[in-house]
Amino acid sequence: MTSLDSVLDKDGVRLTVDDAVATVTLTNPAKRNAQSPALWRALTEAGRALPGSVRVVVLRGEGKSFSAGLDRQAFTPEGFDGEPSFLDMARGSEAELDATIAEYQEAFTWWRRNDIVSIAAVQGHAIGAGFQLALACDLRIVAEDVQFAMRETSLGLVPDLTGTHPLVNLVGYARALEICATGRFVHAEEAERTGLANLVVPAGELDAAARDLAGALLAAPRDAVVETKALLSGAVSRGYEEQRVAERAAQGRRLRDLAGITD
Fold it and tell me: What are 34-51's pLDDT values in tens digits?
């Protein structure tokens, strides 16, 4: 997607804004957009830098792969320049380790804010942290060559970048467990069939499909989309009667707003 205004470009992340649509691009195709703490901080900064005019955020990766996951340099004794290695992190206190992981998770949490709708446009490999970054978004459009995999368990770790909650919600507990425990690939057909993907398109049509979906999302009034997103995301944790109450309250707010009535 093209853009009129570049807001941020650092550490493998570029944020551009074109009126109501922002595009976050992973910009290290030579390493298949492998992720690092610096990249996660840049993603967090991108979320904080979004202008208030933005309603839709598209996440994409340059090159043949969306993101091949965590850069394996993280597991070396030296780690990344200027960063504590994962081995050093493990030697710290439990509180310090928890705080560090919480900081990393911030890169994955803002995509589901109620004031935006986020779309991941995913091609090629989306592995581990790459899979979790795609899961962080509200919607996913995938290319026919997509390969999702959750490889953390195979490395003796667990998925800890917020991906477990949306994965279980999308495909159910049993399939989520099987995907994570085996580390196998999930291809486009299964992704669409199980709800991981909203749409599958040829790789050459991925950006255009994301543009089309962004345009369709912008067609409805912003406040109605915001309220609807909040209703649907909250439905996961509410009972039926609680959801009925939430619907009535949300509709009341919309009707009063449309009538120009303020509390």
Answer: 999 999 999 999 999 999
